[in-house]
Amino acid sequence: MTNRATILQLIAAVITICLMAVLHDWLGWYLHRLDPKFLQGLAVGICLTIVIVLMALWYDHRKSVALTPREQQRTRNIIDL
């Protein structure tokens, strides 16, 4: 690794750390002002959204995988039409 690349990586790391510190302070201030019931609802909403997205991805992956050679041939026949 060259000296220039190392210096650029260090600069990027320092900038990232500064941004994360500012974001941490700002989020702490903002979330501290909110009602605890709102935060509970927000947490539940985020969890449910993650579960729904993961289920959709799992379902899409399951549908995209052909289970048998017969299904693969059927798809090829449909494409040939």
Number of domains: 2
Helix percent band: over 70%
Strand % is: under 5%
Distance between the termini: 55 Å
Shape: flat
What report would you give on this structure?
The protein has 81 residues and is mainly alpha-helical. The chain has 2 domains: 1-33; 36-81. Helices cover 89% and strands 0% of the residues. It has 3 helices and no strands. The chain has helices at residues 3-33, 36-64, 69-80. The radius of gyration is 24 Å and the shape is flat. The mean pLDDT is 85.
Characteristic key phrases:
mainly alpha, 3 helices, single chain, 2 domains, 81 residues
Brief overview, please?
This protein is mainly α and about 80 residues long. The protein has 3 helices and no strands. It is flat, with a radius of gyration of 24 Å.
